[in-house]
């Protein structure tokens, strides 16, 4: 029986819950554990504790509240996506922001910090499970109301607007590496092989690049890389950081 339990845990999505309300965490844990393909591996009451636990147990997904005492969810998400954390831990967990708030400031702050998804606490239990699976696979997840806001915001922008060079500073070192390789025409599979990471990780980085730079798709990302001088015609493929 113990071997079967260990085998199941090894093949499940490992989920860390971060919320300052114990009752909320208990409810989330109950919902997650009813799913056969995911398991709760830890709980945190604030962003700082979430960072500590994530560094130790390396969860696949962190369900993160935005507003918590001490370090909030936005700052914790930003630190989880930072190169320093990734270099030390060797792992970037996907962050699914779960909150009662749907104001624009909270949405943009969380997504720019590196969150892969944004779900309201009023969502149906089935949406939580679907969102966890989505971000765990490297895709994004946005609650419909939030998606409509982002689409409306993008639609109101002039089509010719691309990121200014200073906006590139929002990207981490690894995100810039991914953008450069994409600008060279590499597929997600080729980028993953070049950087020795999974395709899910590449998709996660690409999603964060688009959000941070306010872009709509891969084609705009390539155009932005050339416009900002990150890539120039004739450049060869860069050597990944840490590889001779």
Could you characterize the architecture of this molecule?
The protein has a six-stranded parallel β-sheet with strand order 2-1-3-4-5-6, with helices on both faces. Helix content is 52%, strand content 12%. It is of the alpha/beta class and 244 residues long. The protein contains twelve helices and six strands. The protein has helices spanning 2-11, 22-33, 47-57, 73-81, 83-89, 104-113, 125-136, 144-155, 173-183, 188-195, 199-213, 218-227; strands at residues 13-18, 38-44, 61-64, 94-99, 117-120, 141-142. Helix 9 crosses helix 11 (199-213) and helix 9 crosses helix 12 (218-227).
End-to-end separation: 46 Å
Unreliable stretches, pLDDT < 50, 5 or more residues?
Answer: 1-5
Query: So what's the overall shape?
Result: globular
What integer is the average pLDDT? 81
- What structural category arises from helix and sheet content? alpha/beta
Instruction: Give the SSE order as H and E letters.
Output: HEHEHEHHEHEHEHHHHH
Could you give a short account of the major beta sheet?
6 strands, parallel
- As a percent range, the share of helical residues equals 40-55%
Strand content: 5-15%
Radius of gyration (CA) equals: 18 Å
**Number of helical segments with 4 or more residues:** 12
How many strand units?
6
Main-sheet strand order equals 2-1-3-4-5-6
């Amino acid at each position: 029986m113990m071997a079967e339990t260990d085998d199941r845990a090894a093949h499940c999505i490992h989920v860390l819950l971060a919320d300052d309300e114990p009752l909320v965490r208990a409810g989330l844990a109950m919902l997650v554990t009813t799913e056969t393909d995911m398991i709760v591996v830890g709980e945190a009451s604030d962003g700082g504790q979430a960072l500590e636990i994530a560094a130790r147990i390396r969860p696949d997904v962190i369900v993160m509240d935005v507003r918590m005492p001490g370090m909030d969810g936005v700052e914790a998400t930003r630190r989880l996506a930072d190169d320093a954390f990734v270099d030390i831990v060797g792992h970037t967990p996907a962050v699914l922001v779960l909150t009662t708030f749907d104001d624009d400031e909270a949405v943009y702050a969380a997504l720019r910090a590196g969150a892969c998804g944004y779900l309201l606490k009023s969502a149906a239990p089935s949406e939580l499970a679907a969102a966890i699976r989505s971000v765990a696979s490297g895709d994004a997840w946005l609650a419909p109301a939030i998606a409509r806001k982002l689409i409306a915001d993008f639609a109101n922008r002039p089509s010719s607007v691309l990121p200014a060079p200073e906006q590139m500073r929002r990207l981490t070192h690894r995100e810039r590496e991914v953008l450069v390789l994409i600008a060279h025409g590499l597929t997600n599979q080729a980028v993953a092989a070049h950087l020795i990471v999974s395709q899910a990780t590449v998709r996660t980085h690409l999603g964060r690049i688009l959000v941070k730079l306010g872009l709509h798709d891969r084609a705009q990302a390539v155009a932005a890389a050339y416009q900002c001088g990150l890539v120039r015609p004739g450049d060869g493929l860069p050597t990944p950081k840490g590889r001779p």
